[in-house]
Write a structure and sequence with these properties.
mainly alpha; 71% helix
């Protein structure tokens, strides 16, 4: 497993640690995450814990080449699924402890994070010795 960790790139490691940390925070500070879960969703605590496990597992998966692709797909899907919660936070900005400008700034960060996960886990890098195809 140590060799697997060494085979990951710095962006993969950084993203992996980021997602594992946010996953752990879902358990340490579950109430904060429950507070930002949209009212229209049921079982806030269960959703917070499930998403915490998903973030931690996805982050760990980014570090392991055997499951990196699956982890990337899972994290991208998770980021897409939770995006409406970011919009809901902005719609209810007056009820949030986060300043409204930060809520606005957060919205374009989600697609950027999706792109970064894609680059770190799914995009096939071109080999520098691979011939170019003109067809």
């Amino acid at each position: 497993m140590i060799a697997d960790l060494r085979s990951s790139t710095w962006p993969q490691r950084l993203l992996g640690v980021f997602f594992m940390t946010t996953g752990i925070l879902h358990f340490i500070n579950a109430q904060s995450f429950e507070n930002i879960t949209p009212d229209y969703l049921p079982a806030h605590l269960a959703l917070v814990l499930i998403s915490g496990v998903a973030e931690f597992a996805g982050g760990l998966g980014l570090l392991l080449p055997q499951v990196r692709r699956q982890a990337g797909i899972g994290l991208i899907l998770l980021l897409i699924v939770i995006f409406p919660a970011n919009i809901d936070m902005l719609v209810h900005a007056d009820e949030q402890s986060i300043p409204e400008p930060l809520l606005w700034a957060r919205l374009p960060l989600q697609p950027l994070l999706i792109w970064w996960v894609y680059r770190a886990s799914l995009r096939q890098e071109r080999s520098p010795t691979a011939p170019c195809s003109t067809t």
